[in-house]
Design goal:
The chain has about 575 residues and is mostly helical. It is built from 17 helices and 15 strands. The protein is globular and about 75 Å long.
C-alpha cells in the first residue's frame, strides 16, 4: 500500500460528521436521542452482548409484571409478534440471520437498549444534532426542546426515571418499564470530537423551523405516525444539507475563502420568509418525477437531474481532502510555533482555507513535498500503478499540495465516491416510503417525490406561527394554499421542482418536449395530492385549486376535522 493512514484520513468535522456509510434512519434517530439526552455527547453505556427477541418477550410476559402488561402472559405468541414488529428494530428482518438492533425509536430512552454493532448511525446522528444546535434563534434551541418534550414523555421534569401519571401509550409504557432497570448511563466525551457549525446554517434553520411546525401537531397525530414523519423529515434535510455542501465546498476551496454570503452571521436565509433562501448563491435544485414511472419524459429529466448532482461528488471529495490536509498543515505550523491555535481548540473551515492562499505557499510546499517524499520512500515511483506515476512527477506543473491531492484522488477517489452515493441513497430513502430518489433494478437513479414525503411537506407547509401565542393551546394554526403557491414553496424552500426546470443545476431553458413533460408532471402532482387527501379541484381555475389541511386549527385553538 503506497499511502499511510495519515494520508487517507478524510473526515473533518467542520465539513460533515457523516462517515459516509449506508445508514438506517431508525438507528440515526436512536443515536440522535442519545445525544439529545447528553447535550451532544454519546453514552458511556455500550452493550457488547446481543439482546434477543426472546429476552424482550420474556420481560413482558413475566408474571411479576402482569399488572403493567395485562394479558401478555396469557398470549405469548401474540406478545412475541407485537414485540418483534412494533417494538424492535431488526437487521435482516425475516431472514435466518435476523438480529436485534435495538428498540424502535419511539421514546427518547430507547438508545439504552441498542446492540452497538447492529445500531451504528455512522455520524448522521451527530450531523443532525449539530444542525439543530447551531440553527439560529429562535429555531435551534426551540426545536431541540420540542423534540425532547415529545420523545422523553412519561418522565417528570427533574428525573429521567420518574414516571408521570399522564396517560401514555403501550410502547412508551414498555420502554419506561425497561428503563427502570438500567442505571449505568452517563455522557461520554470522545477524543477529537467537538461541536462544529454546519457549513450551511440556512439549511439548519429550515430543518429546525420544519421540526417546530411539525411537532405542533403532536397532540393531534398518533405517536407512531409522528415518529415516522420526523424520520422522513430528518432524512430529507440531512440529504439536502449534504447536497448543498457538495455544491458550496468546492467553490470555497477553489477561492481559498468562504463565499461572502455564507456564515452564521451573514447567511441571508430566513426560514419564515416566502422565499426563505433568497440571496443564497448555493441553492439546490432537484427536478422530481412525481408519477414515479420509469421511462417517461419526466422520468428522463429526473434521471438527468440526479446524474448532475452525483457528478459533483469527485469535486466534493477533492475539496474535503483539501480541508482535512490543510487542517493537518495548520496543526503542523502550530506545533512549530508558527501559528496559534484558536481559543476554541480547533480551526473552522473558513480559517483553514486561508492556509491555501499564497501567504503560506512556501511553508505549504515544504510540508506537502515531505508527504510526497514519504510516499515514494514507501513505494518507489517505478512500483506505483501506471495511472499514479505521472502525479509524482514535477513536470506536471502542479505545486506539491495539488499533486498530493491528485494522488489521494487517484488512490481513494472511487472508494469515497461509492460510499457517498450509498449515503445519499440512504438519506433520500431510495425505493422506500418517503423516498426522494428511486432506482429500478439495473436502471438509472432519478429524483422522485414519494407520497409519504409529500404528505410530511404538506403538513409542514400548511402551518403558521399562531399570533395568539400562549393564549392558544397550539403554537401554530393552519392555512390553505393554492396549488401554484405550494409548488412555489417546494421550489423555494426545498429546491424540489415539479412544474419547471431547476436553472443552473444541470438544465437550461425548457424546449417544447420539456414543456410537455412539465405539464404531465404537474398533472401527476395534482393527482398525487388528491390521493393523499389534501386537495379537491373545484374547477380548472388556479384560484379554486386549493390545498386544505386534514384538520383545521384556528388561531383560538379550535380544532375541526377537515378544511373543506
Amino acid at each position: 500500500m503506497a499511502l499511510r493512514r495519515r494520508d487517507t484520513e478524510f473526515k473533518h468535522l467542520g465539513v460533515s460528521y457523516l462517515d459516509f456509510k449506508r445508514v438506517q434512519m431508525d438507528r440515526v434517530l436512536t443515536g440522535f436521542l442519545m445525544r439529545l439526552n447528553h447535550k451532544g455527547l454519546t453514552s458511556r453505556m455500550v452493550r457488547r452482548n446481543d439482546l434477543s427477541v426472546t429476552e424482550f418477550v420474556g420481560e413482558f410476559t413475566d408474571a411479576r409484571h402482569a399488572d403493567s402488561f395485562q394479558g401478555f402472559a396469557d398470549h405469548p405468541d401474540m406478545a412475541r409478534r407485537w414485540v418483534e414488529t412494533q417494538l424492535l428494530d431488526m437487521v435482516n428482518r425475516g431472514r435466518p440471520t435476523q438480529a436485534v438492533a435495538g428498540l424502535r425509536p419511539l421514546h427518547g430512552l430507547t438508545y439504552k437498549f441498542r446492540n452497538y454493532y447492529h445500531s451504528r448511525p455512522y455520524g448522521a446522528d451527530a450531523q443532525l444534532y449539530e444542525m439543530l444546535r447551531h440553527a439560529r434563534d429562535p429555531y435551534g434551541m426551540l426545536a431541540l426542546e420540542e423534540i425532547r418534550k415529545f420523545f422523553f414523555t412519561g418522565l417528570d421534569a427533574t428525573s429521567a426515571a420518574s414516571v408521570t401519571k399522564a396517560p401514555i401509550d403501550v410502547e412508551t409504557q414498555a420502554v419506561l418499564h425497561l428503563n427502570s432497570q438500567v442505571k449505568a448511563d452517563s455522557p461520554h466525551s470522545v477524543k477529537g470530537w467537538y461541536s462544529a457549525r454546519p457549513l450551511c446554517v440556512g439549511q439548519a434553520d429550515l430543518l429546525a423551523d420544519d421540526v417546530v411546525r411539525l411537532l405542533s401537531l403532536k397532540d393531534l397525530l398518533p405517536r407512531i405516525t409522528m415518529v415516522e414523519y420526523l424520520k422522513i423529515l430528518f432524512a430529507f434535510h440531512l440529504a439536502l444539507g449534504q447536497l448543498k455542501t457538495m455544491k458550496l465546498l468546492p467553490t470555497a476551496v477553489a477561492r481559498s475563502a468562504a463565499d461572502p454570503a455564507c456564515g452564521h452571521d451573514r447567511c441571508p436565509a430566513a426560514a419564515d420568509a416566502a422565499d426563505p433562501l433568497a440571496g443564497c448563491p448555493f441553492r439546490a435544485g432537484l427536478f422530481v418525477d412525481v408519477a414515479g414511472v420509469p421511462g417517461t419524459p419526466a422520468a428522463v429529466l429526473a434521471e438527468h437531474s440526479a446524474e448532475h448532482w452525483l457528478r459533483r461528488i469527485p469535486d466534493f471529495v477533492r475539496a474535503a481532502y483539501a480541508v482535512r490536509k490543510l487542517d493537518e498543515f495548520a496543526e503542523h505550523l502550530v506545533g512549530q510555533g508558527k501559528e496559534i491555535r484558536p481559543a476554541r481548540g480547533h480551526f473552522t473551515v473558513p480559517e483553514l482555507l486561508r492556509f491555501g492562499t499564497g501567504d503560506y505557499a512556501r511553508l505549504r510546499d515544504e510540508f506537502f513535498s515531505a508527504r510526497l517524499t514519504s510516499i515514494t520512500d514507501d513505494t518507489p515511483v517505478s512500483e506505483q500503478p501506471e495511472e499514479v506515476r505521472p502525479l509524482l512527477e514535477e513536470a506536471m506543473g502542479l505545486d506539491p499540495f495539488e499533486r498530493y491531492l491528485e494522488l489521494l484522488m487517484a488512490y481513494r477517489g472511487r472508494y469515497h465516491h461509492k460510499y457517498i452515493v450509498d449515503t445519499i441513497d440512504a438519506l433520500l430513502l431510495k425505493n422506500r416510503p418517503g423516498a426522494a430518489i428511486a432506482q429500478p433494478h439495473q436502471g438509472r437513479r432519478r429524483f422522485v417525490l414519494d407520497s409519504a414525503l409529500l404528505e410530511v411537506l404538506v403538513q409542514v407547509a400548511l402551518l403558521r406561527v399562531n399570533p395568539r401565542g400562549s393564549s392558544s393551546p397550539y403554537t401554530h394554526h393552519t392555512v390553505s394554499l393554492r396549488l401554484d403557491e405550494f409548488l412555489a414553496l417546494l421550489r423555494n424552500r426545498y429546491g424540489l421542482h415539479v412544474d419547471r426546470l431547476p436553472a443552473g443545476d444541470g438544465f437550461g431553458p425548457a424546449g417544447l418536449e420539456e414543456e410537455a413533460a412539465l405539464r404531465t408532471n404537474t398533472e401527476a402532482f395534482t393527482t398525487r395530492m388528491r390521493e393523499i387527501g389534501f386537495y379537491d379541484d373545484l374547477s380548472d381555475a388556479y384560484l379554486t385549486q386549493v390545498i386544505t389541511p386534514r384538520f383545521t386549527i384556528t388561531e383560538d385553538g379550535l380544532v375541526t376535522a377537515g378544511g373543506r
